[in-house]
Give the backbone structure.
Amino acid sequence: MYASVRQYTINPGQDRVDEAARDVHGGLGPILSQAPGFVAYYVLDAGNNNIVAISIFESQAAAEAADSAATGWIRQHMAGLASSPPRIAEGKVIAQQVK
């Protein structure tokens, strides 16, 4: 498995984090979930106008293909909400625990 973690700092403003979450849930989530090799996608409200998005795919190739498909959506929708490009950490999942 391969995971990507992106942290976005959202521009301050009333309900901006909620707006970003709604946009992601209704737009980016469906794009990612339809990608081959998709496993899971989570979005966290990390406080202080920070949103963390975690995506998990079966392989690095599947993650990269999904990123390519989602790039246009991210540019169009997150550019107005985020104050800077996201901080990104990604790599092969080397340990996991699921119930």
User: Anything to note?
Assistant: The chain has a mean pLDDT of 89. Strands lie at 2-9, 38-47, 50-57, 87-92.
